[in-house]
Amino acid sequence: GLDDGLTTAEKLRGQIADTVFVDVGPVTVSVGAAELRRDDTLDSWLARADEALYRAKRSGRNAVRS
User: Fold this and answer.
1) CA 62 to CA 17: how far, in whole Å?
2) Which residues, at least 6 apart from 21, have a Cβ–Cβ distance to it below 8 Å?
């Protein structure tokens, strides 16, 4: 479900933020997540995830949003 996905995304975000990559230095990621609903099409599902991604970026980046 969404809660498990957000937990996993947050762990991944934290691990990436805590890693210094030799060739580029510190890196951060933003993640947008959306749970598939019964009436979703692929496009509507991805649109919600994309909206969540942009909320994460607007919040200062290096964030997970749903």
Assistant:
1) 8
2) 27
Residue-wise pLDDT tens digits, 26-42:
999 999 999 999 999 99
Mention every residue, 6+ apart, whose C-beta is less than 8 A from residue 62. Answer: 13, 17, 28, 29, 30
Q: Look-up: residue for tokens 């919600």?
A: 48
Inter-residue contact 58 to 51 (CB < 8 Å): no
Mean pLDDT over the full length of the chain = 96
Helix (H) or strand (E) holding 16: helix 2-17
Dist. CA 34–CA 56, nearest whole Å: 13
